[in-house]
Amino acid sequence: MKTNEIYAVRLEKKGVKPTAVRILVLKAMLESPCALSLIELETLLGTVNRSTIFRTLNHFLAHHVVHDIEDGSGSLKYEVCPDEDTCTVDDMHTHFYCEVCHRTFCFPSIHIPVVDLPEGFRLHSINYMVKGVCRECAARMK
Predict the structure, then answer these.
(1) Quick one: pLDDT at residue 57?
(2) Which of 2, 15, 120, 126 has its CA 20 to 30 A from that of 101?
(3) pLDDT digits (tens, 9 = 90+) for 29-39
(4) Helix (H, G, I), strand (E, B), or coil: what is residue 72?
(5) Is-contact 111 93, C-beta < 8 A?
(6) CA-CA distances (angstroms) from residue 107 to 57, 82, 94?
(7) CB 27 within 8 A of CB 45
(8) Contact at 8 Å (CB) between 68 and 124?
(9) Which strands, in side-by-side order, build the sheet including 66-70?
């Protein structure tokens, strides 16, 4: 199966029509080592305008292709859901925001602590963010 076909199948599983732009956005996000903001995606893609990327991300959010992360930088970051079929609270994991380079790293092996909410409250999303200096930036600071 060709690379673009793999992305198309992944989108179709989520009920998303695999257009050329949607495949480009998904591919860029999957190839990135960290979560990306709208502006970072716009820079990576170059030929796709910001409003098109924004609409694509919102469509992806609605169909659970991606989830958003509030890292405290003032802009949302987006990450592809780890499971091709669903994206649930159980899939959430710890993120690390580097205060020097402003990248947001995903740590899928570090799960979010369990939060017991009072009766009557329902959990839909968890955002667990650790802030500091990443390995690369720390090495440059020596």
Answers:
(1) 97
(2) 126
(3) 999 888 899 99
(4) coil
(5) yes
(6) 22, 12, 5
(7) no
(8) no
(9) 66-70, 76-80, 34-37, 104-111, 93-98, 129-132
List all residues 6 or more positions away from 119 whose beta carbon is below 8 Å from its beta carbon: none
For residues 91 and 129, what is the distance between their CA atoms, to the nearest angstrom?
15
Q: What is the pTM of this model?
A: 0.77
Structure tokens at 35: 């979560």
> How far, in Å, CA of 125 to CA of 132, rounded?
23
What pLDDT, in 10s, does the model give residues 93-139?
A: 788 889 999 888 888 788 777 778 899 998 777 778 889 999 999 99
**C-beta separation of 25 from 56 below 8 A:** yes
Here the tokens at position 112 are: 């979010």
Cβ contacts of 49 within 8 Å, gap of 6 or more = 42
* Separation of CA 81 from chain center: 7
**Could you count the other beta carbons within 10 Å of the beta carbon of residue 90?**
11
